[in-house]
């Protein structure tokens, strides 16, 4: 089975994706991760204004199969939370790279893109 791995995104080994937009970083979970979880039924996310730490848990995704932690790719302040996920957690399954995004963060000391996997590296990891 092949999974969508957009070239313009960067990835964590723990299956989160990230994209940079001006001063913020948007984060979600990959197509592979949502497929492994199965039908997502609940998402727990931080509040806007909360601080997240790179490599640390910022939220939880609960599916019919499992409960999984979600990890921050960068340290910083949460600027926005995708509140649509509270009423429609299935967006994570339906559109993991679009409407299923989770948080936006203002990174404290830039984005450590060098430490993140590019699309080819991530694709090789999940193959």
Automatic annotation (TrEMBL):
The modification N6-lipoyllysine is found at residue 65. Pfam families: GCV_H. Transmembrane segments: none annotated. GO terms for biological process: glycine decarboxylation via glycine cleavage system. Binds 1 lipoyl cofactor covalently. Residues 24-106 form the Lipoyl-binding domain. Its cofactor is (R)-lipoate. InterPro entries: 2-oxoA_DH_lipoyl-BS, Biotin_lipoyl, GCV_H, GCV_H/Fam206, GCV_H_sub, Single_hybrid_motif. Keywords: Lipoyl. The glycine cleavage system catalyzes the degradation of glycine. The H protein shuttles the methylamine group of glycine from the P protein to the T protein. The glycine cleavage system is composed of four proteins: P, T, L and H. Belongs to the GcvH family. PANTHER family: GLYCINE CLEAVAGE SYSTEM H PROTEIN, GLYCINE CLEAVAGE SYSTEM H PROTEIN-RELATED. This is Probable glycine cleavage system H protein. The lineage of its organism: Archaea, Methanobacteriati, Methanobacteriota, Stenosarchaea group, Halobacteria.
């Amino acid at each position: 089975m092949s999974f969508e791995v957009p070239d313009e995104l960067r990835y964590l080994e723990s299956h989160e994706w990230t994209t940079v937009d001006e001063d913020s970083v948007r984060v979600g979970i990959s197509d592979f991760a949502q497929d492994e979880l199965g039908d997502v039924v609940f998402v727990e996310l931080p509040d806007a204004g909360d601080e997240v730490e790179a490599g640390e848990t910022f939220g939880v995704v609960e599916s019919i199969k499992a409960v999984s932690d979600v990890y921050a790719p960068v340290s910083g302040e949460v600027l926005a939370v995708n509140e649509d996920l509270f009423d429609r957690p299935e967006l994570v399954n339906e559109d993991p790279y679009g409407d299923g995004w989770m948080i936006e963060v203002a990174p404290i000391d830039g984005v450590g893109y060098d430490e993140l996997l590019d699309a080819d590296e991530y694709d090789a990891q999940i193959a």
